[in-house]
Amino acid sequence: MDSLFDSAAEEAHRGQEPLAVRMRPRSLDEVLGQRHLLGPGTPLRRLVESEAPMSLFLWGPPGTGKTTLAYVVAGVTKRRFVEVSAVSAGVKEVRAAIDQARRELGMTGRQTVLFVDEVHRFNKAQQDALLPAVENRWVTFIGATTENPFFSVISPLLSRSLLLTLESLSEGDIRAVLERAVADERGLGGRVTLRPEALDHLVRLAGGDARRSLTYLEAAALLDDDITVEVVERAVDKAAVRYDRQGDQHYDVISAFIKSMRGSDADAALHYLARMVEAGEDPRFIARRIVIFASEDVGMADPTCLQVAVAAAQAVEFIGLPEGRINLAHAVIHCALAPKSNAVVKAIGAASDDVRRGLIGQVPGHLRDAHYAGAAKLGHGDGYKYPHDFEHGLVRQEYAPRELRERRYYEPTRHGAEAAVAERWARIRDFLRKP
């Protein structure tokens, strides 16, 4: 009688679980995305197909399936699943979970998957507590993290584990997740209609995060059985961004974004940045445009601008969205408010034009490579003056081919830091070109 009651209670609770939990895959074949980790012979496949314990770190943005993969490994292999949250658990809880796993292994032979979510939040003492269990294979340890484990995990633990990197889900993967949730009995069981334009909108809002897409879908389904864009907007309290990533809006918005930074209007640039982020534009695309802008429109007027832009691009790769939008905003404000100069892009453009027109000339003999056998017989390097041997590190000699002696490419502006560069370059150029 008790078992019947327990089963009924468990079933009732299952129906109240969030949609993202109910739709969690039950096998590796049901997992969408992460194809590079799920093929034949991959560590995950080997872990599922063998009985040997293994320790893994799953590193990737939110909503990419880290917890899902841990559940699948435990479910398919019939191992006990024990989850410890690094946010709330301490050394005592970790050791208790390991002790229980050891007892279970000794008494029944059943292995345990010890899953630590947000493992990067564990301090050194907490991570040290995991080492004996990993080293002695008392548990199959799986740690999930959104931060680079090379910076957040102690070396002894990392060296004893496999590191698997998860990628944000593609639009096609998110679309498949949503369509499955609408049709599957574990999900909405076909009880709602999801309009195509609403599906597209949910895919955009998800930003590669499967859990977010299912949370938004569930919220919309609670409001109406006929899910339109308007229903989705009400459900997530977010206005639809009219933005076609393959159409005119894509090009119009990125054009306005660049021109607003070029015009030093930080507010307008931030508006267009937010518009792209909220519409689900690939943040790496935005970051690449900022990096280009830093050299094309700021250049030597503020040499730190490129450093900030590259750092923002790396940060986006490192932490993903939504937090990555802060790094992008940082770079946008820096670029928009920096003094402007297009001297760098004009310089390389002019040099490239001459090369394409055939104005090339011979490399002066004293600048040619003199390191290989026989170079000395050809006179390569003869007469080269080593600048470090001269005052100020400067020495007058021919550098450009003779035909290009009078050509000028870099013409610095007097904006920002480039004013000092202009003065120095003028003095150096006069010194080098003086007969």
TrEMBL record:
InterPro entries: AAA+_ATPase, AAA_assoc_2, AAA_ATPase_RarA/MGS1/WRNIP1, ATPase_AAA_core, DNA_pol3_clamp-load_cplx_C, MgsA_C, P-loop_NTPase. Coiled coil: none annotated. SUPFAM superfamilies: P-loop containing nucleoside triphosphate hydrolases (SSF52540), post-AAA+ oligomerization domain-like (SSF48019). One of its GO terms (biological process) is DNA synthesis involved in DNA repair. Keywords: ATP-binding, Nucleotide-binding. Residues 52-168 form the AAA+ ATPase domain. It holds the Pfam family AAA_assoc_2. One of its GO terms (molecular function) is ATP hydrolysis activity. Belongs to the AAA ATPase family. RarA/MGS1/WRNIP1 subfamily. This is Putative ATPase. It comes from Thermocatellispora tengchongensis.
